[in-house]
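Sequence design from tokenized structure. All designs in this work follow the same two-part layout: the structure record, then the generated sequence. An example of the structure record is given first.
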């Protein structure tokens, strides 16, 4: 595989719909290029978990003012976990990698990620993490808001039924009791919420290239990616 060591490092922005395999794709790219990988969805999930744990969400209802009053005390960090070959997310020193992926967090994260103060805090942190380039960041607004000048922007999409099946298999493998219908409903609701929120809605940046991976293996996606990478770095 081509080495990037002798090349100038760039910023790679990956946006797209929920459960498209963005994080798997981004993590694999970062490993091959020796870049840092940041999953920004994990950051919105971590704030949501904190809100659930600290009484800012009860019975699915978000207390907007309470969440804003908690924001200053939430410290998010990533630490590399050699066992996983990826970074784990920590909130105030606690590793929350597993707890942020439950269906409860998935059902509340759209409401949390639509709050302006939450986005301002997390976008500033993301920009700081990418200051020195050599980063692959995935999310919903990376190519449009966080790094509008990223050298390579990819917009990922896949058939909702394929995405639901992937997420279902992932959660069942972890032992979570979920139904395929529940997962599909959650994905469709989050697609709608992501595209229609007032602040930083999900949209394809004008200079992004689209990747529909409904019927592609990870290896096929990597081959496609390396061609795009070569195009912008040569
Ligand atoms: O990628 P994910 O499904 O783990 O993201 C969780 C939620 O966070 C998703 O429903 C939308 C939100 N999100 C966002 O608003 N902006 C980002 N940059 C990343 C995620």
């Amino acid at each position: 595989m081509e080495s990037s060591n002798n090349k100038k490092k760039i910023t790679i922005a990956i946006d797209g719909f929920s459960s498209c395999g963005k994080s798997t794709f981004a993590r694999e790219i970062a490993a091959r290029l020796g870049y840092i990988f940041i999953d920004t969805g994990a950051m919105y999930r971590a704030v949501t978990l904190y809100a659930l744990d600290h009484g800012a969400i009860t019975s699915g209802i978000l207390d907007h003012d309470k969440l804003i009053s908690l924001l200053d005390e939430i410290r998010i960090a990533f630490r590399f976990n050699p066992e996983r070959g990826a970074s784990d997310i920590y909130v105030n020193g606690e590793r929350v990698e597993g707890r942020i992926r439950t269906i409860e967090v998935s059902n509340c994260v759209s409401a949390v990620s639509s709050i302006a103060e939450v986005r301002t805090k997390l976008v500033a942190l993301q920009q700081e993490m990418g200051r020195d380039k050599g980063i692959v960041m995935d999310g919903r607004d990376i190519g449009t808001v966080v790094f509008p000048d990223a050298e390579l922007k990819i917009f990922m999409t896949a058939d909702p039924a394929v995405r639901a099946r992937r997420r279902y298999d992932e959660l069942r493998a972890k032992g979570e009791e979920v139904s395929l219908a529940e997962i599909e409903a959650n994905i469709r609701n989050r697609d709608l919420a992501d595209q229609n929120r007032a602040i930083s809605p999900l949209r394809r940046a004008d200079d992004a290239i689209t990747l529909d991976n409904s019927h592609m293996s990870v290896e096929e996606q990597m081959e496609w990616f390396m061609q795009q990478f070569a195009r912008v770095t040569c």
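Residues 18, 40-41, 44-45, 109-110, 113, 139-141, 190, 194 surround 2'-deoxycytidine-5'-monophosphate (CB under 6 Å). We note this feature because it recurs in several other targets discussed in the main text.
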